[in-house]
Amino acid sequence: MEGLCGGIGARVEAELQVEPGRSLKGAQKMLPVWGLKISSGGPAYSTYHAFISTSSAYIRAAENCRDVGESAAFQQSTLMYCVSTLYVFISFNSIILLFLYFIGTLAGVIDLAADWMTDLKEGICLNGFWYSREQCCWLSDETTFDDRDKCPQWQKWSELMIEKSEGASAYVLNYFLYTMWALTFSFLAVSLVRVFAPYACGSGIPETVQEENRAQRWRTDSVRIKSMDSMIKTILSGFIIRGYLGKWTLLIKTVTLVLVVSSGLSLGKEGPSVHVACCCGNLFSSLLSKYSKNEGKRREVSTVSSSGSVGVSVAFGAPIGGVLFSLEEVSYYFPLKTLWRSFFAALVAAFTLRSINPFGNSRLVLFYVEYHTPWYMAELFPFILLGVFGGLWGTLFIRCNIAWCRRRKTTSLGKYPVLEVIVVTAITAIIAYPNPYTRRSTSELISELFNDCGALESSQLCDYINDINMTRPVDDIPDRPAGPGVYTAMWQLALALVFKIIITIFTFGMKIPSGLFIPSIAVGAIAGRIVGVGVEQLAYHHHDWIIFRNWCRPGADCVTPGLYAMVGSCSLPRNQYSIVMLFLISGGVTRMTVSLVVIMFELTGGLEYIVPLMAAAVTSKWVADAFGKEGIYDAHIHLNGYPFLDVKDEFTHRTLATDVMRPRRGEPPLSVLTQDNMTVEDVETLIKDTDYNGFPVVVSRDSERLIGFAQRRELIIAIRTQAHIPQLNV
Amino acid sequence: MMAAIPAYTAVVILLLAAVHGSEEKNSEDVRCKCICPPYKDKPGNIYNRNVTQKDCDCLHVVSPMPVPGADVEAYCLRCECKYEERSSVTIKVTIIIYLSILGLLLLYMVYLTLVEPMLKRRLFGHSQLIQNDEDVGDHQPFANAHDVLARSRSRANVLNKVEYAQQRWKLQVQEQRKSVFDRHVVLS
Question: Is the ipTM of this complex over 0.90?
Fold first, then answer.
């Protein structure tokens, strides 16, 4: 039996020795865990048909096998060994580099293509169809101060078709084509997902969290496997969704991500980007022989280096946040090693993204705030108010979204995924087009909301009544009364807020790639901007009130509405997004804040506003916690019933392992392989007679001392490959 | 697995080279953009000029100067000039690559869902059809993957190996589709 090296010759005695505290009875009962028939063992396992599990014992076995192979190679020829080691080393490093470069490029491609396709809904560039509106007018000298988006090279569909840019017919035509393009994009996306890679749908974060949890658990358990319940944990957390990180998932998710983002649906690309990065990591680690056969190591590489730092780095444009995030996430065991690895990973990925320069402004991020006006203590009150709003909205969103998803899962609604996407897209496009703030892409909207109204701005939001004899320099403009444009913008924003809140509930969870981050930021930013303008006008008109007296003299610039938008947006996402981080980082609130706050600063560049941001974040978290501890991804994990082991929960039920394990008393004995005296025929009979996924290897029937575990697959393969060799020596 | 490395690497390098390789600066890839806010009775304006980074200021870019000589300094103080670069070739190549990948995928999708079932029907004739209808109730794409898999296993040559791999992939996707769309076990 020893000769069949495929997990059979595993030596795991060291880990499996019984702890001194445990009774011997428990130790004997411990073995049957391995005989668990995972596919239909009990109600808890019955649903996972598409999944397999991996365990640390199995991973150890695979690793041992590799070592045996390597030492054999060493004996053969020292020179060959050196050459092969060198080859592995070089290929390893170049592949890692290539992989990081690849992810950065992918992120750039997604950004550029989504930008272009979003604008395709409204018109086309005559200079070259591949330019988006901004790029089309990039060199044009004919853009005006008031209408910056327009230039003769960029033609709206109505101008191109009926040669009119104004009027009812042009509006209707544009409206119609906008909706049609949106429908086309989303239809293509959902059918691609359906035909090629169903696992590409959704945000991917709950599942990626699942995988992360698995990788982390595995590390934990390789140390702690001595204890009884952690063995069950290992099996459970060795849960792999097969094909979830595959090549087709990667391709389809990337392609459809662009389609859905540009279809104007209320979703973002950040969550799926993390999944895409994970797929890349998996793909590239499968190229390395060191990692290709070892599921656990592979996960480690793909999760640590890709999802941890690279995903965050390219998705949010926050390389340092990515590094910190990765450090916090895996700091259980190898912080230093991992710190370097992820530092390097984030660096290369960010560098690549920067070299593609997707936003055309030589920055990694889209939302960059440039104001540095101070804030005042009295402003903390509205900031906290925004935090409360954030918490309430977060709770509402989670409750409604989960209720809707449950309905989709259980009722006949779930039978029409394509139709559902089409209907939601149609509703979104039809409602969004009339309102200028929902018509444009969400990220454009956010960056406009973050903007401070300087003299250089000409948007409707900045339509303040200017003092004629104002002679101040550009940067320091005092508070001004709002003009009609601002009031129009306010009610349009209010409508946009309501619309976004409602539509996001129905959008998240459809069978297309969808992220939650951008819509959450948008809702927060809209609410923040409205509050900000309100406070500004209040301060302008009532500057003799007690709270404003010391703070806001007439003619001073004291309230920055853009800052409110930023605070609002930071209070909101953190509510869900903090939960994500909480999961990934698995470190509790205090540690979470560090990388989260860094990511937020990197995203916005506003280093002065630590206190407002944190105040809003903490308030929103408290409020949300008051209504329920469950975050959105948490809730989705529960909804799908993944065997997720939350680090925050400790096991309160002290169920003994003997109570759940099989075989119980009165059932036939456990099917095992014995170490020495089994023939191939015995093994074949065993495989034929039972349908277990694997068999424990014990010393003999008398002393059931566990020495390893052989998977059914491995046995079958081993027997099949050896069958043609006559002098098989088993 | 080692043998697959060169193939993958080649593909990836080609892709990266296509996106990054052609980064030589076009003359239309740099600009200096000045935004000048309204000043006295003059409306605000935007100026775009193709100048070097060192010349990127209001005096070089704004021409003709809308205000008389005495006001030039005051006017220029308010303007904000930014030097920006882009790579139009990268944009072009990226969009074209994206569109061609999308096009290929769509063609393949149409082939798999519409053309292939039709061909199969014509090839295997009527008797096969009845058999198929019994065990394959649904009309999902790839519904006959099981059959082909069983058939191709019996014959063995290089062409069939490719077909076998394709059918295996189809089976996997079918399984995924079942668990996502029908049973709602994952990702719902």
Answer: no
